[in-house]
Amino acid sequence: MDDLFRVLPLLSHKVSPRPPPSPNYPSSSSLASTTTTTMFRTAVKQSRVTRSAFSSAHFSSTASKNSALKERLSQLIPAEIESVKAIRAEHGKKSFGPVLVDQLYGGMRGLPALIWDGSVLDPEEGIRFRGKTIPECQAELPKAPGGSEPLPEALFWLLVTGEVPTAEQVKELSKDWAARAAIPSFVEELIDRCPPTLHPMSQFSLAVTALNHDSAFAKAYANGISKKEYWGPVFEDCMDLIAKLPTIAGRIYQNVYGQGKLPAIDPSKDYAHNLSTLLGFGDNHAFVELMRLYIVIHSDHEGGNVSAHTGKLVGSALSDPFLSFAAALNGLAGPLHGLANQEVLVWLTKMQQKIGKDASDEAVKQYVWDTLKSGQVVPGYGHAVLRKTDPRYTAQREFALKHLPDDPMFKLVGQIYNIVPGVLLEAGKAKNPWPNVDAHSGVLLTYYGLNQMQFYTVLFGISRAFGVAAQLIWDRALGAPLERPKSYSSAAIKKIFADKN
Ligand SMILES: CC(C)(COP(=O)(O)OP(=O)(O)OC[C@H]1O[C@@H](n2cnc3c(N)ncnc32)[C@H](O)[C@@H]1OP(=O)(O)O)[C@@H](O)C(=O)NCCC(=O)NCCS
């Protein structure tokens, strides 16, 4: 609760008004065929419970159901249910502050409206995952042998349990996710049939939606599962979701940009390593390290941002985690949210085309002004909550200083950092003139050769699944109800205040 109260001052803020997809790709199990697909469909009809008639590579939930993480959760849930009951008994009727009409018109900025346990965002300090800052996560979470960035598996464990896992627990998660990584052959076919001109985020969302076909929760619900048991199959779906995202992303990447065959997942490697391999960068140690850091810092940003809130909202209708997260992805695909990382690179590239690669500060400043005067936003700058430089930006800058200090694009990002905030302040509109996470990520990816800007938000999407999944599990464990806030018409607002006068 302390963390929640730290965001309350916000209430006083004034709210202003290629080539076609190859039909020759082998399935991820090398077994995909019409026969397998038919078998798959028949078996789903035959049994909703037994999946063993099929190659495990074609099904979700192939890993052990008694994972250490699930076991730990089942220990934590009863106490948390009691804790929430106690909070509601003691504070349930207390006011959380006034609601201003401006907040209704102003995108609900600062309006306390949601419970989100994985992370809390302080406007000045930035994100804390279960109370830990990014540098604290970097210091405390287990790493891969020879690595210096925290493992995303460890971050997920932290988001879900609030505890730092052991190296052994992290290893088990890596193995579990690798075992669940394959996607049904009909989803492979679905991706392969997308035209390469369809934005990778649309392909990603389509494929995630289709995973709902095998949802353990949807099946359990149809079979009449008790409310108290919801979290179990939701946990399984969330584990499947996270595990399968790299396979989907890798396939989209290969279809749209690559020519080669999709490499196999290595069960002895960690999640970020396997993702890097699927994208063709598995041999590049620094890239793998970048992916570990990238996933950790993009995973969660409390609950009110568009993707997180959408995932929670849709989940509250008891839509399964695949449907909920696909909806979240569609929000992430917007240019004011996750697509901003693509927009930054597009903007930087256009800038270089217009004013050259070694442009003076004056020329850059003029370009920033031209952007604003043409009614566009400067992508990668500003934030709805943050009022300081985003620590996720700082973490990426530190990574760049270590791995690519002399890269010209990195230097351009630094040059822009010295110019944009001054211009935004002078323009006088943006409440936060400082850079956010998206101002830096694309430059790092480009440096290692992942220069397909339209793909960047897919990587953000993989990361964001960690935070959304953690909350979906808790929402179902704690019996979170259907979300249904009250809306008003402008006419109603006029009338309410006219009646009061
Ligand atoms: C993130 C963002 C959507 C937050 O929006 P917000 O909470 O409404 O921000 P503010 O309250 O500071 O906005 C006040 C005004 O400043 C403008 N503004 C904010 N950031 C701006 C930016 N980077 N460039 C230009 N104008 C900006 C807003 O568009 C708004 O203008 P309006 O009054 O004409 O509608 C906004 O800062 C933005 O568009 N940034 C660029 C896109 C981006 O990087 N998104 C990723 C966020 S992690």
From TrEMBL:
Cross-referenced SUPFAM superfamilies: Citrate synthase
GO cellular component assignments: mitochondrial matrix
Superkingdom of the organism of origin: Eukaryota
Region (Disordered): 13-33
GO MF, any single term: acyltransferase activity, acyl groups converted into alkyl on transfer
Key words of the record: Transferase
Active site per the UniProt annotation: 337, 383, 438
Biological process, per Gene Ontology: carbohydrate metabolic process; citrate metabolic process; tricarboxylic acid cycle
Keyword Transferase: yes
Recorded family membership: Belongs to the citrate synthase family.
Protein name (record): Citrate synthase
Species, as recorded: Gloeophyllum trabeum (strain ATCC 11539 / FP-39264 / Madison 617)
